[in-house]
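Me: I'm a chemist; would you kindly supply a protein sequence with its structure tokens?

Assistant:
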Amino acid sequence: MDILRPHAESVFAAELSTLAAADQHQRPRNWKLSPWAVVTYLMGGTLEGGETITPKYFGQRRLIEVAVATLATDRALLLMGVPGTAKTWVSEHLAAAISGSSSLLVQGTAGMSEDALRYGWNYARLLAEGPSERALVASPVMHGMQNGQLVRIEELTRIPSDVQDALITILSEKILPIPELNSEVQAARGFNIIATANDRDRGVNELSSALQRRFNVVVLPLPSSMEEEVEIVQTRVDQLGKALELAEAKVPSEEIRRLVTIFRELRSGRTEDGKLKLKSPTATLSTAEVISVINSGQALCLHFGDGTLRARDLASSLTGAIVKDTSLDAEVWQEYLETVIKGRDGWQDLYRACREGV
């Protein structure tokens, strides 16, 4: 069966195996790779034997070193940042490199109960046998504690505060009480938690001070330079194009650069040359949104065009990515079209395509 989105440990199995064979550094208990090898896996590099490890994260190496060093202690890791700064991507690859599995995942939602963090019950067995180990349904957190693996918790600040606090005993005492069985699960070495939270969500369900103290926070920023963001987009577009079978759709590098320029300018509230101040829309306009716009354009040009990505293939998705709130963002986008895009050399095709969709 073809998998739509295989786990990181499957996609990059060859690189992980190569790193494990070449890794001569000290490994914490139950880690598949040493901290040095984990950082090399994420940041990329060339090994002594000449093997090349592709970069998974483009950014400050020190941030990844701090994240990996945190997981080697008894402190949990909280990755913060605006949407689209690769928090989920980094957490998945950290879990794949350290534990060999990124599948122990809890997706935070507003309606989540404690069962998702602690354990649940098979109610048919519970009614037939009463509380027993066979009736217990372990959560990803419990599995991680039992097997000494990393557990990922996505969107921590979307989880209700009273449910968040179920993590306090797990993180401080490294045990999970099961009062119904008068027992507990003690965490094996190698267990830890990687949580993610968006800066934009701050205040939805803020972390209690008791829970905050049990996390080391690493803030993942937006790409600092145009070249870095273009490289990120190019790399991910190539990867996703192959995964979604869109690789035959040609993406000219100038189209990527134009999109990145638009998103960076609207995000920062000024043109790249600093000569003109701009209004910013309510949307985050992250790197992930650029990639999404290009993937949509690839599908259009591949199935309804000549196979080469052009301005008309990007226009509708580009407008949709920027205009999230029609009452607030439509005016911002139209003003940007008229004052910036219209007057740029070589951008007339994009201007016309976007104006037709306004």
